[in-house]
Amino acid sequence: MTTLVPATTLYPQAIPFPSSLPEEVYALTEKYLTHVQAQLLHEGFHVDSHVGLGTPGDAILAYAESLSADLIVMSTHARTGLSRRVLGSTADHVVRAGNTPVLLVHPE
Q1: Residues with Cβ within 8 Å of residue 79, at least 6 apart in sequence
Q2: Which pLDDT tens digit goes with each residue over 42-89?
Q3: 103 φ, ψ to 5°?
Q4: 104 has which bridge partners?
Q5: Residues 6 or more apart from 34 whose CB is under 8 A from it?
Q6: Phi and psi dihedrals of 104, rounded to 5?
Q7: What gap in Å lies between CA 73 and CA 93, rounded to an integer?
Q8: pTM here?
Q9: Helix, strand, coil percentages, rounded to 5, for the chain
Q10: Which CATH number is associated with domain 7-105?
């Protein structure tokens, strides 16, 4: 008899990031965010960026709480079924575990 273990037991959330990022990865991340921030500022939006460490959903919630944020806006790939269970869902975690309202958008 085969015992089935739910994927959510194996992968309860997205795989956590390491506690430190190599300098090159950190620099590339900062460069990317600076580029996106500049585009949004040019379009008239007020934007701040932050690179955090840890499990993505928990890091997002902790940062939003540290800012006393009124709203978290994040994009989602809208995975369903097995891919969502195996890969986890950062957006789902942020929506369910946090106290801050969340606006989810599809990237285009």
Answers
A1: 87, 89
A2: 999 888 888 887 788 999 999 999 999 999 988 877 666 655 554 458
A3: -110, 120
A4: 74
A5: 49
A6: -100, 135
A7: 14
A8: 0.65
A9: 45, 5, 45
A10: 3.40.50.620
